[in-house]
Structures are given as C-alpha cells and as structure tokens.
Amino acid sequence: MPHFSVRTAKSPASPKCVVACAICLLGCVAPGAAPAQVIESLVSKALQSHPSAVGQRALVASAEANLESANWQFFPTPSATVESASTSGSDPSYRGNPQVATFRLQQPLWTGGRLTAGIDKAKAGVSLNQASYQEVRQQLALKVLQAYSEWLSAHLKTQANEVSQATHLRLLEQVQRRIAEGVSAQSDLVLAQSRLDAITADVIASSAQRDIAISRLGQLVGQPVQAKALEAAIARPRALLQAPQTLIDQALAISPTVQKAKHQAQVQLAVVSERSADLQPEFYARLEHQYGNFSYSSAMPETRVFVGMTSRLGAGLSSASNVQAARTQYAAALAEIDVQSRLVTDQVTADQALAASADSRMASVQASLVSAKELSESYDRQFLAGRKSWLDVMNSARELAQTETLLADLVSTQVIVTWRLALTAGGIEAVTQITP
After folding, report:
1. Is the CATH number 1.20.1600.10 carried by domain 15-74+127-278+319-431?
2. Which of 7, 29, 273, 311 could bond to 117 as cystine, CB 3.0-4.6 Å?
3. Element (DSSP H or E) covering residue 106
4. Sheet holding 282-291, edge to edge
C-alpha cells in the first residue's frame, strides 16, 4: 500500500528511507503499469445494479415495442360495431331489425409517407433510447471514478497527515522536555501545541472525506464497500498510448451523448416527414360484413367493399405550420450535435492537458518532498546546535506535510484523469474488462 514517508515519534526517517518510500509510491501509480481490478469491479457492479441503468433498460424495451407497433400499421385494421335502436312504431327509417352488427377490415393503400415516417421515427427512437442507456452507463462509471478518486485522495492525505501528526507529537514532547530543563521558552510549547492541533484537525477532516467517499461508492454499487478492500488494491493511472487527436476522434465516435443527439435529429427528421404527410390525402380499402338491417327485417347478411380517400389537414393552415415547426426543431437538433461534439472535444482536451501536467509535476513534487524531508531533519539538528529557531523547525515540518498533501492530490488526479480518458475514448468496456 503506498505511503509518503516512514517516520515514528521516536525515530525520524532518514533521507534514504524517504527516497525509497517515494519510489515505492511512484511505482504503485506509475502510468503503464497493469491497472488494479478495483475500479473495474466497482464500475461493473454499479452498471448491473443501479436503478437508473435498470430504468433506462426498460425504456429501451418500450421503444422496441413502439417499433413493433409502427410495423403493424401497414396491416389491416379490424373493427366491429353492434348497435341497437329503440324507436317509435311510426319511424319509417327503422322498420327492420332492432339490432345491427357490422364487422370491418380497413387496409391503408397510400398515406403519403406517414407510415414509413412512423417506422423511421420508431427506429430512431430505439436508437435514441439505446444511446440514452449508454449515456446513463457512462455517467454512472464517471461517478464511480470520481468517488474512487475522492477516496484515494482522502486516503493518501490521511496517511500523510497521520505521519505528520506523529512528527508534531514528537516535536511537542521534545519542547516539553526542553522547557522542563529550562532551555526553551513557554511560547515554543504554545506554537508546537497549536501546530499539533491543526494537523490533528486535518487528520479528522481527511478521515471524514474518506468515509464519505466510501459511502458514496457503496450507494453507487448497491452494497457496502470495505475500506480494507480498497486499500489492498490501489488503482494505478492508465497509460495514454494514443495521440491526442486520436483520443478526440475516438471519443467523438463512441460518445453516447453525441450519438444521442444524432438520433434525436433522426427522430425530428421523421417528424418532419410525418407532418408533411398530413398535407397529402390518404387512400384506403375497406371490407364490411353486416348482419341485420334497420330499414327492413329478415335481411340477409351483406358484404361490401369500399375504396375511399380521407384527409388530415387540421384546422385552417395548422398542418403547414406544424411542418414548419418540425423543420425548425430538426435544425435545432442538428445544432445540438455540434454542441455535444464540442463539449466532448473540450473535455478530452482538458483531461489530456491535466494528465500531461500531472506527469510533468510528479518528478518535481517528489524531489520537493525529499528536499523538504532533508530540510526538516537539518533544521532539527541545527536547532539543537543553536543555529536555527524553534519557529524554523515548526515551519519546516509544516512544509513537509503540505508537500505530502500535494503529492496525494497529484496521485489521485493522475488516476481520475487517465481512467476518465480511457472511459471517454475507449467506452465502458475499457473500464469494465477485468484481467486475470
């Protein structure tokens, strides 16, 4: 399990020990190393059990049922009518049977493209819901990555703060002994105690952040997450082997948000065709079979065939206005594709820059950590020799703790950014395939 330095309250670590621990930390998070299985497992569990994914799968099934219904619109429509008439005896129009039953079968012959547009819209609806399902899955995976990154940052900060807490406790005990011997002022004790209280507060805060992140992970995966299991398999950054433009192209090609916008445009295009078909007449054929007749009694069953035409113009010029509205919505849907494409490009570009920055800063921060440790130990010795003040010693200890905290943030940034890029450019499979 990675940690920043090895120090005890009674035996400060040597610079060589700190260098060794730093190299161990870098080895655990070095890009290109085989990634741990912890993230893959967490993401897979979230995708299987989270209610948002389950609900979206149901919407996909609903869209497929709508497509099946659209295909059935090309078939004849059966209907039945049974009427009973109660009239006065002198009514000349109803002197036949008191009850008449009519069975009809109506087949559309030509609808101006309305039925075909309905199928196109239903197909686009299926694709739209499937893209929405993939978008929900991607968002769930991103939430898991974010929560894991928050846990990792809090976990490493807690380790660093606990080590710093032990150092400040050692310094407090040291100044207490010096005050008892009459060689240090009471103000030195006040400074040491205040710094110890501050680092203790940092330990409590980072521990709380770690617990919150674990709780959030548990909510996402649908079951409690054990801290020991996370600590036993710290995830490592992913290797970024593709060129920057290649990552952008891959992200745009598979982005469920972009695909969703494209399918929404297809739905709107089908709506334009549907609305345009309303301006056209529809032709149909109808077969009727009638039992009974209101006009005269003892009528034999009659069979009739009709060929007719109907219109769907609507009130006034509303149909033409509906077509114009649909075309405007289609134009808006096309613009949304460009919007989502730019957002994906911006996100990938920003993550690439952040990953490159983290890689560049890692060596500098690591060197700074070693220097801060050496400086802190040097100030300890110089203070005992009377060449440094107690304030210098406390400041060097605080600077060491700050550098360790900065390294914790850098490590978690590397993990979240590289895994997010893998998810964005490689799809869900990139973060759910668990290798042996």
Report:
1. yes
2. 273
3. strand 99-110
4. 77-84, 99-110, 282-291, 302-310
Nearest to 157 by CA among 423, 410, 426, 433: 410
Helices and strands (H and E) in the chain: how many: 10, 4
**360 has pLDDT over 60:** yes
Question: What number of other Cβ atoms are within 10 A of residue 397's Cβ?
Answer: 23
How far apart CA 384 and CA 387 sit, in angstroms, is: 8
DSSP symbol at 239: P
Element (H, E) at 308: strand 302-310
- Residue 389's alpha-carbon distances to 385, 392, 393, 425, in angstroms, are 10, 5, 7, 54
The secondary structure element, H or E, covering residue 423 is: helix 390-426
Exposed, middle or buried, 64 (CB in 10 Å: 0-12/13-18/19+)?
A: middle
Distances (CA, A) of 318 to 89, 115, 267, 285, 433: 47, 20, 21, 27, 54
Give me the pLDDT at residue 241, please: 80
Contact 160, 18 (CB under 8 A): no
Show me where the domains of the chain are located. Answer: 15-74+127-278+319-431, 75-110+280-312
Over residues 371-398, the pLDDT tens digits come to 888 888 888 888 888 788 888 888 888 8
Paired tokens of 23: 């190299």
Per the structure block, which two tokens stand in for 48?
């299987």
| Over residues 166-178, mean pLDDT | 90
State residue 25's pLDDT score: 44
| 3 state SS of 211 | helix
Rounded to 5 degrees, φ, ψ at 95 are -110, 5
Local confidence band at 435 (pLDDT 50, 70, 90 cut-offs):
very low
- 285 sits in which H/E element: strand 282-291
The answer to whether the CB of 171 falls within 8 A of the CB of 379 is no
Range with the poorest average pLDDT among 247-256, 298-307, 340-349: 298-307
Q: Concatenate the DSSP letters of all residues of 5-21 into one string.
A: ----SSSPPPHHHHHHH
Task: State pLDDT tens for residues 295-333.
Answer: 877 778 889 999 999 988 878 778 888 899 999 999 999
